[in-house]
Amino acid sequence: MEFRDNKAIYLQIADYVCEHILLGKWKADEKVPSVRELAVEMEVNPNTVMRTYELLQNKNIINNKRGIGFFVDENATEHVKTYRKIQFIDDELPVVFRNIYLLNIGFDELEAKYKTFVKENFNA
């Protein structure tokens, strides 16, 4: 995985896990990769993955079954959406709004681009 400099690595790994859940690659009550497995896959220190898993546990996205491992929470999809929505609204949307204002982009143009994006990427 290519990490960006503008965001902590553990948060980028959390985004990766959340995306897998939202895309249905990791389903409710399914075991997620162990800390060591994900650390090897991401080429990071296991402590970084553990920090990610602790964050996701606090957000009720995954849970730890002692001695067995971490599992996707049965309501993970809703918890991920809530977590990611807050993150997007607080961190990313102000930048988007600033650029929309500065570049004088209209809502009609945005809507057309959004619909094209959805169609091309999600076959909706």
TrEMBL record:
<dbReference type="InterPro" id="IPR000524">
    <property type="entry name" value="Tscrpt_reg_HTH_GntR"/>
</dbReference>
<dbReference type="InterPro" id="IPR036388">
    <property type="entry name" value="WH-like_DNA-bd_sf"/>
</dbReference>
<keyword id="KW-0238">DNA-binding</keyword>
<keyword id="KW-0804">Transcription</keyword>
<dbReference type="GO" id="GO:0003700">
    <property type="term" value="F:DNA-binding transcription factor activity"/>
</dbReference>
<feature type="domain" description="HTH gntR-type">
    <location>
        <begin position="7"/>
        <end position="75"/>
    </location>
</feature>
<protein>
    <submittedName>
        <fullName>GntR family transcriptional regulator</fullName>
    </submittedName>
</protein>
<dbReference type="GO" id="GO:0003677">
    <property type="term" value="F:DNA binding"/>
</dbReference>
<dbReference type="InterPro" id="IPR036390">
    <property type="entry name" value="WH_DNA-bd_sf"/>
</dbReference>
<dbReference type="Pfam" id="PF00392">
    <property type="entry name" value="GntR"/>
</dbReference>
<keyword id="KW-0805">Transcription regulation</keyword>
